[in-house]
Amino acid sequence: MILETLNLMHCNITSVVPEVMPTATVPILLLVCFLFLIWNYEEISSIPGPGFCMGIGPLITWRFLWMGVGQCLQLLHKMYGEFMRVWISGEETLIISKSSSIFHAWVQCIGMHENGIIFNNNPALWKEIRPFFAKALSGPGLVRMIAICVESTKNHLDRLENVTNGLGNINALNFMRQITLDTSNTLFLGIPLDENAVVLKIQNYFDAWQALLLKPDIFFKISWLYKKYEKSAKDLKEAIEILIEQKRQRLSTVEKLEERMDFASQLIFAQSRGDLTGENVNQCVLEMMIAAPDTLSVTLFFMLVLIAEHPKVEEDMMKEIQAVIGDRDIQSNDMSNLRVMENFINESMRYQPVVDLVMRKALQDDVIDGYPVKSGTNIILNIGRMHKLEFFPKPNEFTLENFEKNVPSRYFQPFGFGPRGCVGKFIAMVMMKAILVTLLRRYRIQTPKGRGLKNIQKSNDLSMHPNERQPLLEMFFMPRRNVDKCQDD
Ligand code: HEM
């Protein structure tokens, strides 16, 4: 369209040129047009998507900023298909939502940024750090986490008034954040903390993280634009550093080291051996502490809304809990027997995901799904969209039928995939089961009348975090005994 407009302008201009410009201008204009064509010709890629077109393509960046990433991607996918090229911060970025391509991409590509683990794009550093996370999130730590989750959920349910407003509504998202922070602290750090204060700092940290992630470089040249976000990141960092300092002091005074050294102790000892820097230790502890209060808490919150909206699914889960576990607390050997709950968890993560975009950078030239991909290309894998395009019999409905048949893992990747996939995916599954079983046993969930998932507004399209200020975050927790009694009457 733009070229056509330019063409028309060119016709009008040439008709007036002889009167106002010397004749030499025409060949110069033609030369400029010729150079323009050559420049664009070099940019022509076989991958569908807006071209560079003298910098007009990168303006898409700004579209991301005002539309939100999720919405903008859906629009672009409609225009260009499931494998497309866009420009983010002037850099070529591929957006893929096909399972065939995604599977290839993980072999060749790796994530971005250079600190801690989550967005560490220094492969050598990341390789040193990942084993600390993998060890803490599996084996004995994973088994211990089940009892920790049960205990923490019970304790928080006993203090529900802390998250209940004057009308008796519970801020379910905050409730889940407090439980997930408490369980993470118990297993990974073990220093008493002010839950409300740290939860707030984590929320602000993520708001900042989401807001800054896809901003173009120019944004960071104007300090007042990013100052508030920088402060949020600094606040959480400082709060965690104080806790780690307390941990260091505790470790320096204990006579006999505990048999079970937790995650923070392992890192601190690695630092004293000279294997890690203090800064890296702090960043790793911070990321371990925020991982569950971010993803897991929002996932559980969505699950509570889905349970409230689907009483038949709730009934089936309750029957299963009674049959498999009875009246005792859930234990590790119950996990694989909770089939209905597992299908519910999977279907919830498919239908209402908390993370639907995964990012990589190509380490070398490659061909993905027939398209050439240059080394250094950023790639965003749209797994949320992929989960609604392929394999599932009722992709746009929430139904456990979608998981009735065994789902090949290539079609369902809520935790990402490959060496860079979620290192907490196994512990996340047991945590979700332990918290849900303990909560559902005692309470029935209800959302305010007329409100449901459809009313959830997202605070940012990059992840699916609900907007903190909307009333849907509030729910009713009805004690089961009262509900059963009412039904008997
Ligand atoms: C329902 C809960 C969760 C979901 C949906 C989730 C999802 C994800 C996804 C999609 C990624 C990116 C994977 C990729 O790039 O391929 C990721 C990475 C990660 N997750 Fe999770 N996650 C969850 C829970 C957790 C928990 C409980 C922990 C730890 C306590 C955790 C720790 C991490 C870490 C450390 C990474 C970065 C891994 C790396 O870059 O090597 N996650 N997660």
UniProtKB/TrEMBL annotation:
GO process terms (BP): androgen catabolic process; female genitalia development; female gonad development; negative regulation of chronic inflammatory response; negative regulation of macrophage chemotaxis; positive regulation of estradiol secretion; response to estradiol; testosterone biosynthetic process
A GO CC term attached to the entry: endoplasmic reticulum
InterPro entries to which the protein is assigned, alphabetical: Cyt_P450, Cyt_P450_CS, Cyt_P450_E_grp-I, Cyt_P450_sf, Cytochrome_P450_Monoox
Residues engaged in binding heme: 422
CDD domains membership: CYP19A1
Entry annotated with the keyword Membrane: yes
Keywords attached to this entry: Coiled coil, Heme, Iron, Membrane, Metal-binding, Monooxygenase, Oxidoreductase, Transmembrane, Transmembrane helix
EC number: 1.14.14.14
Keyword Oxidoreductase in record: yes
Ranges in a coiled coil: 226-260
Subcellular location(s) per record: Membrane
TM spans (from-to): 20-39, 51-69
Family membership noted in the UniProt record: Belongs to the cytochrome P450 family.
Protein name (Swiss-Prot/TrEMBL): aromatase
Organism in which the protein naturally occurs: Gopherus evgoodei
